[in-house]
Design goal:
The chain is mostly beta strands. The protein contains two helices and 23 strands. The chain has two domains: 18-234, Glucose Permease (Domain IIA), CATH 2.70.70.10; 263-384, no CATH class. The longest helix has 8 residues, at 146-153.
């Protein structure tokens, strides 16, 4: 993933770039009026919409460039279901949001240990090109509609690869079929393998519109609907308990602030390491006044999780990430909490920046920072960007 340039703060809308090797698209004009004309799901088949920028390490250590339509579930009282907690997510219908061509379709054969036992299943990831190079992304879908499945069965994959992240091992094959779909057409069902259905939008960056290697930037799919439908969606942004009110209400993806600790950090210089090896020092996507550490699986003594804290305006304890600059010393973070408000009793975090592209992070097995100063141990992990 290439590095973005320029500054971004919690009020910024500048998105992170995502490079995908694709043929040069035609970029047919969208014309006037709404770009998207059909909702992706029926009313009542989802509970709420999670804004852009959600972090859910280890597989989503970085802020996500898509939204989540949270799905209802059935409580079985047993240990079955995706998470092994008796919650079973029933399949819901998924529709094409506009007249479009199928820009890409990926078939994933997944082996998961998320529920505590090994399970194998199939999921699809679908991208529709609408107009002006805009892509609409559907994730955690499958089975496909009968029509699309028949087209897949008669096609050959462009390429396949394998990878592992978190509790998942994936064999993925990508197709670029150039089929057409109509707005409102049933194209798939939610897979039942996740608590939410992924729905996102992206568009080519201005610099890549005449290039065969397209750099895509995430966009808010809700803003592509007419005002009435967008307003209906926005009333559901957040969770069942907390509504996002900060602007932009869709959320923010790119929070990188170069020269400070704020943003995404990579374990390896080439930045193509599996995401769970990385970390992000960003903000909550529903309550963006709350800063969070999103930590994958590569920091000794720290479990993969989201760590929230109350920020301070001065001193070296719980400072805003944007205040941490090269050579400013070691900073400590205490009173760390998870999403549900539970405190990590025996954990504090230390960070410093030796230079503008390097960050070190270390853990202390105490819930309190004390008075300092602090020193990085031999277990400190170095990240780059």
């Amino acid at each position: 993933m290439p590095e973005s340039s320029g500054a971004a703060t919690p009020g910024s809308t500048r998105p992170v770039t995502i490079s995908l090797p694709t043929p040069t698209p035609s970029f047919a004009s969208c014309g006037t009026g709404p770009v998207l004309t059909s909702p992706p799901m029926d009313d009542g088949t989802y509970r709420h919409i999670v804004p852009l920028g959600n972090v859910a390490p280890p597989s989503h250590t970085f802020p996500t460039g898509h939204m989540y339509f949270a799905l209802p579930w059935i409580e079985t009282g047993g240990t079955d279901g995706v998470f092994g907690d008796g919650r079973v997510f029933t399949a819901q219908k998924v529709y094409a949001a506009a007249d479009a061509r199928v820009a890409s379709l990926a078939l994933a054969n997944v082996v998961s240990t998320l529920s505590g036992v090994q399970e194998s299943y199939q999921e699809f990831d679908l991208r529709l090109e609408v107009c002006d190079g805009i892509w609409i992304r559907y994730g955690h879908i499958g089975p496909l509609s009968d029509r699309l499945q028949a087209l897949v069965d008669g096609s050959k994959a462009n390429w396949c690869n394998s990878y592992s992240t978190g509790d998942f091992s994936v064999e993925r094959c990508e197709y670029s079929p150039d089929w057409s779909v109509e707005s409102g057409e049933l194209i798939a069902y939610t897979s039942g393998r996740a608590a939410a259905f992924d729905f996102g939008a992206s568009r080519p960056s201005d610099q890549s519109r005449n290039s065969g290697f397209v750099t895509r930037v995430p966009d808010c799919p809700l803003n592509l609907y007419d005002d009435a439908q967008r307003t209906q969606f926005e009333q559901l942004l957040g969770t069942s308990k907390i509504h996002r009110t900060s602007t932009p209400v869709c959320g923010i993806v790119d929070m990188d602030l170069p020269g400070t600790a704020q943003g995404r950090w990579f374990k390896t210089p080439d930045k193509f390491a599996v995401e769970d090896q990385n970390i992000a020092l960003v903000f909550d996507n529903i309550e963006p006044e709350i800063p969070v550490f999103s930590i994958g699986s590569a920091v000794p003594g720290v479990q993969s999780n989201v760590y929230r804290f109350v920020p301070a305006v001065d001193g070296n304890v719980n400072r805003h990430f944007a205040s941490i600059t090269p050579g400013a010393g070691v900073f400590c973070y205490e009173g760390l909490k998870d999403r549900w408000g539970d405190i990590f009793q025996d954990l504090s975090l230390l960070i410093d920046m030796p230079d503008k592209t390097t960050l070190r992070i270390d853990s202390v097995q105490s819930g309190s920072c004390g008075s300092g100063p602090w020193t990085m141990s031999a277990n400190a992990v170095t990240y780059l960007r």
